[in-house]
Amino acid sequence: MDIAYVSFHTYIGDLSIPNFPEGMDFAANCREFCTNPYYGRICYDPYRKLYYRFAYPKTELEKHDESWYDLTQSGRDEFSIIILDEDLNVIGETMFPRDRFRSNLYFVCKDGFYISCNHYKNPGYTDDELQFVKFEIEK
Prior knowledge:
Layout: H1 26-35, E1 38-45, E2 50-56, H2 68-74, E3 80-85, E4 90-95, E5 106-109, E6 112-116, E7 132-135
Antiparallel strand pairs: 1-2, 2-3, 3-4, 5-6, 6-7
Helix pairs in contact: 1-2
């Protein structure tokens, strides 16, 4: 069996396993999770024969910022989407604006790839309706 290894370094650089010392409290552990770089989900788009890979660069939270719980629910403050063709070749990457989109709420349909702009830090955020923006692929 052939295994494809794909390496990405546009925004993340080197990955390292975070240090979670024994006895670290839950809040500190979650805070580390919300700030350390890692690669997330891969979503397949059968209409365009593309893959979208979520990537999360190292980010900072203010020392007094306790929003780690909200970030685990809404997605991180910053993320990019790496675009791969059907052979897993990287064909592009887009860094999304901080605090505007939810990296964990999206869908693919014949019309395109849609991502939610209902991030709780987005100035236009509302609990009253789900809002999505079409992610356009430019060639």
